[in-house]
Amino acid sequence: MTAEIIGNLPFIVSVLMIMVGLSALLFKKNMIKMAVGLSVMGSGINIFLVATCYRFGSIAPIFTNAPLSEASKAAVEMALPVPQSLTLTSIVISLAVTALMLSLAMLAYRHSGTLDSEKSRRLKG
Fold first, then answer.
1. pTM of this structure
2. Total structural domains in the chain?
3. Quick one: the chain helix, strand, coil %, rounded to 5?
4. Taking the chain (125 residues) in consecutive chunks of 10 residues, what is each chunk's mean pLDDT?
5. Residue 116's beta-bridge partner residues?
6. Shortest CA distance to 100 belongs to which of 45, 31, 27?
7. Is residue 61 part of a domain?
8. In angstroms, rounded to a whole number, what is the distance separating the alpha carbons of residues 86 and 72?
């Protein structure tokens, strides 16, 4: 029972982080808190992507000549490289989105004098 929970812990953490980020996006009115919520949600997605490529007893896929395992004299199983590259891409994209959201929040504060999204939404024009 506990081995199953420990084995699924990265998936549980990623779902919790995605839910916390989504709740911050939906229920917070402060634009800075919304940007932080989006960043937390992106981190949860990154944890999920890394957890999907993990294989027990695998090695990093950077070796060209992987060593043979001692027990079976077969090639050692490697972790999947595609989710790792997707995670690196996701980190870069989330950094750019966070910077864009924070700069838009700064411009909205200069224009309306508040970071509340409801008040600045009412200032059309």
1. 0.78
2. 1
3. 70, 5, 25
4. 77 95 93 94 92 75 63 67 87 94 91 84 64
5. 30
6. 31
7. no
8. 32
With respect to residue 65, please indicate whether it lies within any of the assigned structural domains. no
Whole-angstrom Cα Rg for the chain? 21
Q: Give me the amino acid identity at 40.
A: V
Gap between the Cα atoms of 25 and 116, Å rounded: 13
Range of the domain at 85: 2-56+79-116
Backbone angles phi, psi at 36, to 5 degrees: -65, -40
- CATH classification of the domain holding 11: 1.10.287.3510
Whether residue 73 lies inside any domain: the answer is: no
Q: Tokens for 1? A: 């029972």
Consecutive H or E run containing 119: helix 117-122
